[in-house]
Design brief:
By secondary structure, this protein is of the alpha+beta class. It is built from six helices and nine strands. The strands form two sheets. Strands 2, 3, 4, 5, 6, 7 and 8 form a seven-stranded mixed sheet that branches. Strands 1-9 form a two-stranded antiparallel sheet. β4 and β5 form a beta hairpin.
């Protein structure tokens, strides 16, 4: 895949998107279901996620946050099976900056957010799941962070994952990754936003500006 850059001075819509939201849209497109057979993200749920409707933290979400704090801050390590936290730490750089802000561009979409850690050559994100299978994060929109991390000389993103029984790692490289499926979903999501604009209260997702000679990323 070749990446080319093109200057564009004309005012146009800039969509401000973050990976969690794009991953939700992927679930919506696939009509993914939970273990009980219920659709995880239907149209109403998708609109609510766009509008950042606050909902109670689930037990699974809380356990994932506890895992991150245990690995990075050393808090409440006793909540996890013996060896889990040490195994996770062994897979991340010895020195790193936490909650590092990253943004990248694809056409008129700005993708932004925070990666859990950035070392000298590797960025990483901590994940938890009730069930793990290899390649789980192959099409995760956080992989778009690779496009923003390259300015730091970082071309590798590691996911360090636990199902609370074992620890796994998935690695993705900038020069080997095919971003096309993610780009396709970004464009489908933009169409969804326009079709449902009247229901969207979080207008920060829409931003009409002149690009002022900024570089836009095109496939």
């Amino acid at each position: 895949m070749s990446l080319a850059y093109k200057s564009d001075n004309s005012p146009r819509m800039l969509y401000r998107l973050y990976p969690t939201l794009l991953n939700s849209f992927s679930l919506y497109l696939q009509q993914s279901r939970d273990s009980a057979g219920k659709i995880i993200v239907d149209e109403i749920e998708m609109i609510e996620r766009i509008n950042r409707v606050k909902k109670p933290t689930t037990k699974a979400q809380q356990k994932g946050m506890d895992f991150e704090r245990a690995v990075i801050l050393g808090e409440d390590e006793e909540l996890f099976a013996e060896g889990i936290i040490d195994q996770a730490r062994a897979l991340i750089p010895e020195k790193y900056k936490t909650q590092y802000y990253v943004e990248s561009r694809y056409k008129n979409a700005l993708i932004y957010g925070y990666v859990d850690g950035v070392g000298d050559q590797i960025a990483f994100d901590l994940k938890s799941t009730s069930f793990y299978e290899p390649g789980r994060f192959a099409k995760n929109h956080q992989n778009l962070y690779l496009l923003g991390l390259q300015k730091l000389g970082i071309e590798q993103l590691d996911y360090v994952i636990t199902d609370f029984k074992a620890v796994y790692k998935e690695t993705y490289y900038l020069n080997q990754y095919d971003f096309s499926p993610l780009y396709d979903q970004i464009e489908q999501f933009q169409a969804f936003l326009e079709e449902n604009k009247k229901f969207i209260r979080d207008k920060k997702i829409f931003d009409r500006k002149s690009n002022d000679n900024q570089l836009s990323l095109f496939e």
